[in-house]
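Worked Example 4.2. Consider the chain below.
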Amino acid sequence: MKKIRKTAIRRTAQIGFLGLFVLTVLQASYPFQPWIPPELFLWADPLTAIVTQLAGRFFDPVFLIALLVLLSPFIFGRAFCGWVCPLGTSIDISDKYLAKKKSKSTQKFRSVKTVLLIIFLLFAVFGVQLSWLMDPIPILWRTFGVLGMSFFFLFTNTILNGLYDANIFPDRVLDIQDNISAWLFPVSTPKFLMLLLPFVIFIVILAMGKISRRFWCRNLCPLGALLGLLSKFSPFQRVVDKAACTSCSVCQKKCKMDAIEDDYIRTEKSECILCLDCREDCPTDAISYQFKSPVLMKTAPDLSRRSFIGAGILALFGSGLFSLNVLNPRKTDRRLRPPGSLHEDDFVERCIRCEECVRICATSGGCLQMAFLETGLEGLMTPVSKYRIGYCEFNCNLCGQICPTKAIQPLDLEKKQETKIGTAFFLTDRCIPYRLNENCIVCEEHCPLPEKAIKLNEKEYTDLETGETRMIAYPYVDTNLCIGCGICENKCPLEGEAGIIITREGEERF
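Applying the procedure from the previous section yields the following structure tokens:
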């Protein structure tokens, strides 16, 4: 009963930390009044802390939180992966239904995650921050925060609309719908571009359970590799009573991390996540966990000299590839970053693609989206403003408040309202007053500035066909006032491209 109770404690801890992670995601909503920092798990991620600060050549004291996690393997080994990591817990839940009962050994792939870790560290040395692609915490944050937000809205709206159409408690259904919208989606239905890539990454990670349990954690997770290297010095370890062990192999067959060697006595400490399952499964109670001298069970890293050299060469040439300019230079004038963004090189080095800013923007103006190739390979999945989808809300400065790495600097509201993201320009071959000589002042009406950056120039117009004379208000932009919030482009009634667009001209970067 005692060992079952310890395993139950571990599972309770896993669910508790996963629940805490979900709560941090839910805090990223307008109006922003968090009681748990949405950035908490990202701040505590040592891989994010090391790679981001190394690539960006900066130091932020908030990442000292990650030092606690980084030092934990010296005492408790790789327990973070088995007890705390929310992606690890998600994989365990998925593996319960996907993984085969007899899991294949994947020990020959162990070194892959260490090679990946070295590649990401060397990329960072060369100024390219790429760990976001495989760092479990940013992966899960953008999955839950953006994908989860979209699917939750789709699911709840489908159910509630169905109930409303069936005339089942319609008033109550409308109240529930309003309450959910006010809590998570206070402006409008969330709309996101580039959902496919994070969806595919997450689904592939879970689907790897068909190969073996925790295949991702065993072989590919660079954060697990980092903690595993340090856990080799841990004094807390699995100990087997040789006299009591019957070599039944139950522990090895059921080990979700394939950490138990063929003699059933030795354990690869860098792989063991201290889940305690083997202790529970042992029919003779031969297994225990004790503090022992770490030297007795210390093993060499799973990495050859050839692998290290190969990783270095790949990082050297790969950093040059990812630093290439945008694929279509003509689109660079529409690469609009959030207000408070660092200069472009610093911005892409710090941004970890967690999409916290994209998530919280969807609850205010909704303009921030994940970039594809319009920002170049190095800018893949960084936030860009897409004003036909949303706009930068004049009274919102949440993207800078929530950014965990300060790639978007926190600006007070007054400063943000003065910060120039870009400048609006009219396309006279599209704009209704210029093209059709008909009145349309939608852009002027929506301009949020007290002085109105969009002004009207009224002129008398005579229709050559009818001879009718009428006054037409031709809008124009006061470029000294315009901050490029994009609401004019967003609200333009034209189908397709708007009659007014925002470019990067005059943008302020920090």
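The chain has a mean pLDDT of 86. The beta strands are 236-240, 287-291, 368-370, 383-385, 423-426, 454-462, 469-477, 500-503. Compare this with Example 4.1 before moving on.
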